[in-house]
Amino acid sequence: MPGTRASSMQGQARRKALGDFLRTARSRVQPETLGLPPGVRRRTPGLRREEVAQLAGISVTWYTWIEQGRDVSVSPSVWARLASVLSLARAERHYLFELAECADPEHSKDSVTPLPARLADCVHSITTPAYILDRCWNVLARNQALLHLFEGWPDRVASPNLLRYIFLDPAARELVVDWDQRASRVVAEFRADAGVHADEPDVRAVLDELRQGSPVFSHWWTRHTVVDREGGLREFRHTAAGVLRYQQFTFRLATRPDCKLVMLLESDAS
């Protein structure tokens, strides 16, 4: 079937990219930085495959297959050990786990890293409603325009989370036009965001709370629908200003790939 063949080709391309990336990363590591003798007969720079495999606690054959792009099953803990052995930077580590299509077991440690102060200042400088969400949809930064649009939220709660607001705060049903339609899509968007992280403690805690507290969220979560958090028209029924229409744009942050900046630009749609 065409779809199956295309999927197979994409998988092969992904595994090849993963193998190429590992070889490049391996060539950059100086043996002496890991306590290994530099050696005089090294034909290529960096670590040998045998050394990477030994340091990561896996067989040479298995590691060779990974670099060759073969279809082998690798656990998240092994990918984490390889990332450590190869001294991958944050962006490189994120890229590795994206290619491997699995969750980074160390990712939850990164999620508590506060945003750089200047990044929050950037959000405050935006004139239209804007905010930053992490992978659990906790609000890490927001500007005054967003605060005005949401009529005091998120500042009126201790730990603002967009999902809790939409599904557990009655004010959301009054503010969001076509709440039922938006709610179903929000669940599908969050499933796409959570993805392979759904069993990690921080994501699981949010999921458990929402499934217990909101029958609507629980219903749509069991449907297993997945969509991207794409742009589009967003309408709000503001108490003082009436119906407000915006076009939504979402951007991933280079410094925090687990976070995204969401901006709402005024729309002329009628």
Automatic annotation (TrEMBL):
Residues 21-93 form the HTH cro/C1-type domain. Pfam families: HTH_31, MLTR_LBD. SUPFAM superfamilies: lambda repressor-like DNA-binding domains (SSF47413). Gene3D superfamilies: 3.30.450.180, lambda repressor-like DNA-binding domains (1.10.260.40). GO terms for molecular function: DNA binding. It comes from the Bacteria. This is Transcriptional regulator. It comes from Pollutimonas thiosulfatoxidans.
